[in-house]
C-alpha cells in the first residue's frame, strides 16, 4: 500500500494519506498501543462516506497482511 499512497512517520506509528488523482480523500493514522497489545487506527476525512471508504481499505489490507497470524480487525467509532 505504501507505494500507492503517501506515508509519513508519526511518533508511535504512520500516517497514510489518501490523495488519488490530486484529490485529497483523507488520511489514516496507524499507532501502536504496546500497553494493550493493539494497533490503533484513526481515520479522518471530509465526510462520513470518505471515512468509511478509507476504513474499509485499511481493514482489507490489514486482514490480508495478518492472515497467517489470524489477525482480527475490530472497528470502534469514537
Structural class: alpha+beta
Q: What is the end-to-end distance?
A: 25 Å
Low-confidence stretches: none
Treating each run of at least 4 consecutive H or I residues as one helix, how many helices?
1
Helix content bin: 10-25%
Q: Would you count the extended β strands for me?
A: 4
Strand proportion = 35-45%
How many domains?
1
Overall geometry comes to globular
Spatial order of the strands in the main sheet? 1-2-3-4
Compute the average pLDDT.
84
Question: Could you characterize the architecture of this molecule?
Answer:
- This protein is α+β, with helices and mostly antiparallel strands.
- It has one domain (6-65).
- 23% of the residues lie in helices and 40% in strands.
- It is built from one helix and four strands, in the order E-E-E-E-H.
- It has one helix at residues 48-65; strands at residues 6-10, 13-20, 23-33, 38-44.
- Strands 1-2-3-4 form a four-stranded antiparallel β-sheet, covered by helices on one side.
- The longest helix has 18 residues, at 48-65.
- The protein is globular.
- It starts with 5 loop residues before the first strand and ends in a 13-residue tail after the last helix.
- The mean pLDDT is 84.
Amino acid at each position: 500500500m505504501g507505494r500507492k499512497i503517501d506515508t509519513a512517520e508519526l511518533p508511535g506509528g504512520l500516517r497514510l494519506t489518501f490523495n488519488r488523482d490530486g484529490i485529497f480523500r483523507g488520511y489514516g493514522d496507524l499507532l501502536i498501543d504496546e500497553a494493550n497489545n493493539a494497533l490503533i487506527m484513526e481515520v479522518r476525512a471530509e465526510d462520513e462516506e470518505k471515512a468509511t471508504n478509507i476504513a474499509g481499505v485499511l481493514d482489507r489490507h490489514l486482514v490480508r497482511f495478518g492472515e497467517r497470524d489470524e489477525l482480527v480487525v475490530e472497528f470502534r467509532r469514537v
